[in-house]
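Mods, move this if it's the wrong board.
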Amino acid sequence: MKNVKSTFFTAKNVAVLAVLLALVIVLQVFGLAIPMPGGTSMSFVLVPIILGGMILGPGAGTFLGLAFGIITIFDPLAMTLMNYVPAITVLTVVLKGLCAGLVPSLLFRLISRKNKYVAAYVAALSAPVCNTGIFFLGCLLMQEALVASVGMAFWAFISLIMINFAIELGVNVVLAPAIYSVDNVIEKRLSGKVKNNAA
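Not the wrong board. Structure tokens:
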């Protein structure tokens, strides 16, 4: 146990985790500020969550996803739904964030043994699937509350979620693997410099 703690809590890992957490907070708050029909919000926040899971492992991905889920409680739609079904609302938003961090990082760890670039794409695809899939299941449990709070037909609201999902999927598939590739190049160059300095 001491070995795991000492290898994860290095200055570099803590710094990377802190930067990614700051990005999660800023991007989620920024996403909440973009008005979308039906009270939904754009979620650019999945990219740093995916990266945290790929670079630092499942613990970091889960932590960042949980932070995202907790911040999402303060989303205007979630706050409105809290008036009707508080327990289901909190469970839905926290669980979707948690799974959007945990599942991609586990898939990346498993697939990266064979091919890191395929693993990066699978992780990038799985995050919005988890995020939107769990939100959709939560919406099914809160149909009446949703219709009352958003003032539109349930399936019209779901179609807006699917548009949002398509945008999230596109952003993640393009950005997460690209940023991971850049991180790999930087890591290789830094480790090369360290070896040269040591020699």
